[in-house]
Amino acid sequence: MGAIDVRNIVKKFGDFEAVKGITFDVDDGEIFGLLGPNGAGKSTLIRMMTTLLPPTSGTAVINGFDVVKQANGVRESIGVIPQALTTDLELSVEENLLIFAKLYGVPREKRERLITQLLEFVELTQWRKAQVKNLSGGMRRRVEIARGLVHEPRIFFLDEPTTGLDPVSRVNVWDMLERIKSERQLTILITTHYMDEADKLCDRIAIVDHGELKALDTPMKLKMSVPTDNVLEVSFASVPAGWVDKLKALPDVETVAGDDHIFKISSKNGPATTMAVLDAAAAAGVTVQSLSVASTTLDDVFVHYTGRVLRDALQDASPQDSAFMLRRG
Amino acid sequence: MHRTWAIVERELRRFRRSPILIVISMVFPLVQLVVLGYAFGGNVKHLKVAVVDQDGGVPAVRIRELAMAVAGGARTFDTILYADQGAAVEDLRNGKVNGVLTIPPEFSRRVLSKNEPHVALIEDNTDNFVSATLVGATNSLMTAFSQPTSMPRITPIPQLDVVEVYPYVPYVQYLLPGIIVMSIFMMVMIGGGIIFIDDKARGLHEGYLVTPISKLELVAGFNLSGTIKAVLAGSSIMIVGSLIAGIPMPFDPMRLARMFVVVCFTSFALISMMFLIMVRVSDPLLPRAIFGVLNTLLYFPSGAIYPQQGFPTWMRWIAAVDPFTYAVHAFKSLVLKNTGFGAITVDLLYLTAFSAVCMTAATMLFKRTL
Predict the structure, then answer these.
(1) Structural domain of residue B243, as residue ranges?
(2) Lower Cβ count inside 10 Å, N or C end of chain B?
(3) Cβ–Cβ of A53/B202 closer than 8 Å?
(4) CATH of domain A230-294
């Protein structure tokens, strides 16, 4: 059994079914992403896995402990960073960590050493005595990451850890999570609605929408599973007569559009067509000024599996979803 | 248990960094002590009484002299002589005078013939306090008028001798026990209830709920930290209030020790009650909205500002279960009478039982999940 094993988990709030029988597992040491828009059920799912919400049906086993029957075993195994910033603003960075070390029952002789190590790790050593309210949003998020690790958990849950952060802080958090994975051999489950975040961080991604699991695989395989054409944009110095027909005759080329010396070539196989274009240009003595290939993104994957663009989905959370979000924060 | 102490430590560290909270919870009760204590505690003076003498005889002149003696002595009222009763009553209706003392024609003749002499006091009864004071002062005046000029050496009429066990208690001192309880309640509401719900709304409790802390440890932690804050507020008001109210021997160590015990019992009872009320609440507006209602419902029936014997039956039922009642009674015993624990045993037992019931119910109702 892996670090996380979720089977047919369902969560209902009255008549509204927020999570509709999702099944997946996460291996030890993996960074696993739940990708979906607001209201998709990601936070409900993570709350069930962290014992904050009881499932309506189904099971979730975390580090070998059932979330319902062995909730304290789960709690001792996990570190959790909720979506909202929940550190005490009035307390110092060190005090926040100290209180949580005590709540987790970290022995007195280990607390000081662990806190010092963690503050170095999240690069907040010089802010140790500072009140959290005086820190920036990115620094507060790093305090939360340190707080979630203060009891040396096996599995780390992060609910949209970079929402609301500026681009620099986001990259800092990503770097930190990658270091956590490599240095601490943690299993990490992260929810996000940022495609680039999921693409960069996650070993595997589960796409969740309207409480259902739409797809689950590595980012690369998810992209490969989408039958999307590659589009090559090529600029030539000058072109001989009949050049468009030559381009159309190249392998896997479907359409060629353009005028003068800039062409957009739609291909079933981007790499093969790229090589063929370069060879044809070299043979005809045509200089290639620039060439770019637009490859499949997770946006394309999301559109393929959910039938809508994630950007639109963020704006179009259903009325039920919205009510739920208001109720549950 | 170490997790309970972690909650307490966190709450107290935050409390230490919020001095404004301490100030707010102390200012309101102290302002009330000073303003209410001195506003209600003084005697009513310098009321205006129109005197209309329609008789003019010697006994009537004696009534006027006695009225002027009140004006010059106790100063309960000042007299204004009117020739016309109609004008006097008109001024009464217009609020220029508080009462009209009319000595009717034939008064002197009836006095001398011992034939039921009467004087009339026409009063503005829209203000009960003023009205009662005027009636009381005029009755005293009439009693003095009726006294024989020379008293027999041995009177055949039974007399009442009043023996006061304790020194005179000004109203500000009478009010102090209720004010101490109110300061505890203020801290319980602001430093306990409101902060608890605000933290919940901000999602801070999620941080607790994902740790292995138990329901009982969490509830005990919140109750204990709230109790400590309330004890600090109550103890401060106990000392400062005693000095303001002029309690004799305010630093008597035995009385202070006993009062501290009552402060602790009261604080724990009120925080347990507050936590029971708030345990399922998540809207930050609610504790603010019910603050005033709770204060009125608990403070006024407690006997803190008015004796419970004057309450209607339904309010006596509220008073019977109101923890303020027992706390106020205990503080009154200690502050005004300097009694020992024997006089407040029932109060302490009730507060203990009340705390136990509230805390048990709150623990049962507390949801370990969101």
Answers:
(1) 170-365
(2) N
(3) no
(4) 3.30.70
Domain residue ranges of chain A, discontinuous segments joined by +: 4-223+300-328, 230-294
B367 has a chain A CB within 8 A of its CB? no
Q: Which ranges of chain A does DSSP label H, i.e. alpha helix? A: 42-49, 71-77, 93-103, 108-121, 137-148, 167-184, 195-201, 219-224, 243-248, 270-284, 298-306, 310-315, 319-328
Q: Which residues of B touch A55 (CB under 8 A)?
A: none
**Distance from C-alpha of A141 to C-alpha of A128, rounded to nearest angstrom:** 14
Q: How many CB atoms lie within 10 A of CB A115?
A: 23
Do B339 and B264 lie in a common domain? yes
Q: Which two tokens stand for residue A147?
A: 């707080």
DSSP B190: I
Contacts of A72 in chain B (CB under 8 A): 212
Q: Residue B259's Cα: distance from chain center in Å?
A: 18
Contact B341, B348 (CB under 8 A): yes
Q: What is the mean pLDDT of chain A?
A: 87
Count how many domains chain B has: 2
B77: left (phi over 0), alpha (psi -120 to 50) or beta: beta
Q: Does the beta carbon of B208 lie under 8 angstroms from any beta carbon of chain A?
A: yes
Reported as a single tens digit per residue, the pLDDT across B21-32 is 778 778 889 998
Residues of B in contact with A103 (CB under 8 A): 3, 6-7, 208, 211-213
Q: Name every chain B residue with its beta carbon within 8 A of the beta carbon of A329.
A: 201, 203
Domain assignment of residue B29, yes or no? no
Q: Give me the CATH number covering residue B111.
A: 3.40.1710.10
CA distance A252 to A85: 51
At B335, give phi and psi (nearest 5°): -75, -45
ipTM over 0.85: no
Is A329 in contact with B208 (Cβ distance < 8 A)? no
Q: Which CATH architecture has domain A4-223+300-328?
A: 3-Layer(aba) Sandwich (3.40)
Return the structure tokens found at B130: 């003023």
Predicted pLDDT at B249: 87
